[in-house]
Amino acid sequence: MSGPRGVIVTGGTGALGRAVVGLLLERGARVAVPYRRAAAWRELVAGAPKDAALFGAQTDVADAGSAGHFVERAASWLGVLDGLALAAGAWEGGTRFEDSSEGEWERMMHANFASARAVARAALPHLLRQGGSVVTVGSRAAETAGASMAAYAVAKAALHALTRVLALENRDRGVRVNGVLPGTIDTPANRQAMPDADRSGWTSPEAIARVVVFLLSPESAPVTGALIPVDGRG
Question: pLDDT, tens digit, for every residue of 182-192?
């Protein structure tokens, strides 16, 4: 196969994560997904092919101990861990910086940065053993100031910085690290939240997933340290 053999996908039960998982399974990869809600996991399994090589376990990916335990179980089940898609995240905003609460800052850093840091740290020793690729899911908002969503934008900016650091530290050790930066993703939740918005510039989860899977695959071997906007149509 031309793609990765064994991949962990955080956020794999969300709209973008499901698209990434589906495309990986379609291309013959074995996939492991940490999840928080059992109902979301059951929905993912129900939508997958009956013979899908899909593993899941309930996990708080932002907790270092929980993330480490999951990665060890997943790596054992996968056999080879050579791909990591860090798609877990959440959005909260709508207020100016001075009006944003401490709880909002904690939630945004927890969901959008701490989760990626914990899983990447646990997975890196496995990736270093045989080489592999990491793809983070950042946000265009972090590159365009993110007015009225300070906590979210800052958390995603920290993720972008982590992506660059990991790429530099591991470029000579056989592990590539890149990020994709979506704008507004065309999901049912976003359509419900913004019923009157112009969706002409929104991007489908499937279109973003194709870029993620490309960056996970050997076909993108020359690319590392890139933060790629994926906010066109698709």
Answer: 987 777 777 77
Helices within 38-197 (DSSP H only)? 38-47, 64-78, 102-109, 115-130, 150-170, 188-193
List all residues 6 or more positions away from 100 whose beta carbon is below 8 Å from its beta carbon: 93, 150, 151
Q: Once rounded to an integer, what is the mean pLDDT over residues 34-59?
A: 96
pLDDT band, very low/low/confident/very high, at 105 (cuts 50, 70, 90) = confident
Q: Which of 41, 152, 202, 214 is catalytic?
A: 152
CB within 8 Å of 89: residues ≥ 6 apart: 11, 111, 112, 115, 137, 156
Quote the CA–CA distance of 70 and 64 in Å, as a whole number.
10
Q: Please report the domains of the chain, with CATH numbers, ordered by start residue.
A: 6-230 (3.40.50.720)
Q: Is 35 a catalytic residue?
A: no
Tokens of 35: 């999840």
3-class SS of residue 160:
helix
Q: How far apart are CA 164 and CA 82, in angstroms?
A: 19
Going by pLDDT thresholds of 50, 70 and 90, the confidence category of residue 145 is low
pLDDT, position 234:
57
Q: What is the pLDDT of residue 61?
A: 96
The residue among 86, 134, 135 whose CA lies nearest residue 112 is 86
- Do 32 and 56 touch, CB atoms closer than 8 A? yes
